[in-house]
Each structure stands twice: as structure tokens, then as C-alpha cells.
Amino acid sequence: MPLLTNLSFLLTKPTGTTTYALNLLPHLQKLEPILLTSQSLPDYNCYQTPPNLTSEQGLKGHLNRLLWTQFQLPKIYQNLKSQLLFSPIPEAPLYTNCRFIVTAFDMIPLRFPKRLSPLTTYHKYYTPEVFKQAEHIICISESTANDITQFYQIPSNKITSIALAGDNSHFQFLNLPTRNYFLYIGRQDPYKNLPRLISAFSALPNRNDYELWLAGPYDKRYSPLLEIQTQELGINHLVKFLNYVPYNELPIIINQAIALVFPSLWEGFGLPVLEAMACGTPVITSNISSLPEVAGDAAILINPYNIEEITAAMKIIINDSETRKQLSEKGLKRANQFTWEKTGLATVEVLKKYL
User: Fold this and answer.
1) What are phi and psi of 269, to 5 degrees?
2) String of b and e for 218-257 (b: at least 16 CB within 10 Å)?
3) Residue 172 lies in a domain
4) Residues 291, 275 contacting (CB under 8 angstroms)
5) How large is the angle between the packed helices 321-335 and 307-319, nearest 10 degrees?
6) How many domains does the structure of the chain reveal?
7) Considering the entire predicted model, what is its pTM?
């Protein structure tokens, strides 16, 4: 009775969900899963899926995958005499005989809804049904588990929280000289709170001695507004929009930053915080959602709605070398507590209960 693992969403250039799924695979091996994927994964038992089911084909790819999940996946499940489907994203066939376990990442489209956004509709109408019909739900943080209970009234005994991990062989302390820039890594959506970060940086009394680097894909909806803000504050020469930074270049720019500032209004997990701690770079981050779970006592936690508090934290980083040293040491220790082996083994334990 094989375990089916749905990897029809895998991208050729890994982002969050693809990275998560690929890091789980070595640990799932002991369950001898059949992987549903269009990618070549030679070490695994794979069942070929159509290649047009991913976000690389835009909205059409997502729609293709939802239709395939609903109408083709149950047939595959039946033909392969499967007993359980594991989907590392919150998607599964509804109102069928398929038993399934899914992973949930965040409820951000419900916390920060965008008018006419397909993602808001998806989280409003599709995912609640998936969660209700699932045998069990894995969440990447306690914060996401609480959100699922709050938004969808799913009982907490149906949910297991299993933290993500970082790539500790890639993100590590490189002992490079620190340069005078604060770093943010991530998208530029409104909930990422970059206008307040820019205002907080602008309020530094010695701001001309520092730069603010924003690493993340340029977004024509939001980036121009941020650029206008820097011009109005007279700091456009101090704020660098780096656009997308290749994965192999990230450890160097993290290591050389005076601190990572990540004042997001909500995160399902917050990988940049973990990656910065693994590099020994001091972290300033929000005191809400999953971010305190990730940072523990190894970061300066701020109220992300309070610009003065963000500025005050940046001043501490600039003026207090002892605090910087402590944050660096604590961050390195904290990052070592999150490993893919832990994540993988805990996931296998959940799946075993339902096989």
C-alpha cells in the first residue's frame, strides 16, 4: 500500500515550497514513497506528471494543477492502490476516497487580503475544505497552527507543528569584515513593512554613515512607491534596491551586513532570520507571528508597527559592539537547533501514524 507524495508543483528554480519538499525527500525514503513529479529524481520511485502544473506557467499553471489534483490524482491514487497521499502544499482532491495529509505554510492572504487576488479566493474557499477533509495537517510553525484554528475552526489535535530548517552548509559564518549596511531580504509586498523600515532608517541621526540594502525581486506594483519614498526622505543615495540576489551570493552579503532587519507584519516561518543567524549576523525582527519562535532570545525583537522602536534597535546595533557580539554568538547557537533531519524525522513520524 504505497505512500503517494505529490510533487507536481516543484519548480526548476527552487523557492520556499520546492526547497521544503526536496529537503524532506531523503527522510521520506524509509517509507518507500511513489513521487508524483515531472522532474527527474533518479534516486526515487517516480510517477510522471504533466510538466505544465507549476507557477512557472503563471496562473494557468496553478489552475492546471488544481484541475489535475481534483480529477486525475484520485485515479492515480486508485490505480496505484495507495493508502495515503502526502502533499507538502495545502492541496488535495476534495470529496473523493483519497486519504491525505497536507502541509500548511501561512494564512497571509487572509490576514492581508488583496481585492481580486486569486490567492485570497484560494485561501477563502479551497484550503478550508482541504484542511477539513485532511486526515492531519502539518504546519511550519505554532503561529500557523494557531491561525488555522482561528480562521478555519480546525481542532488543534488535528494539527502538528514542525519547524522548517535552513541550509547550514550554505549559510555559515565566513569571518568577513563587517560593512556599514543594514540588510533586508524578501519580497516587497505591503505586509513586509518596508515603508516603516525605510522611515526608521531615515531617522538614524548618523544615517549618512550607513546604507540600507533591500535584497529581493523588483516588483512593479510596490518597488516604485518605495523608490519615491526614499527620494522624498532624501535618502535615495543610501538605499540600494539589489533586486533578486542569486542564492550563491546571499551568504556573503548576509555575513558582511551590520545586521539583518526583518520587520515583517506576519510570517509563516521567516527563513531570512534563520539564515542570518546561521551566518552570525545580528538580527532585528518582529515580536509577532512565527518570528519569535524562530529567533528565540537571539535577536532584538521590535513592534513592527512602531517606527521609533525599529530605529532604536538599529541604534543599538550601531553603538553597542558588545550586544552585536552577543547576538552573533546566540544566533549561531540558535540556528544549529533547526535541521532538516529534525524536520524530516518528525514528518515521517506523523505520516507513519496514518499509513
Assistant:
1) -145, -65
2) eeeebbeebeebbeebebeebbebbeebeeeebbebbbbb
3) no
4) no
5) 100
6) 2
7) 0.93
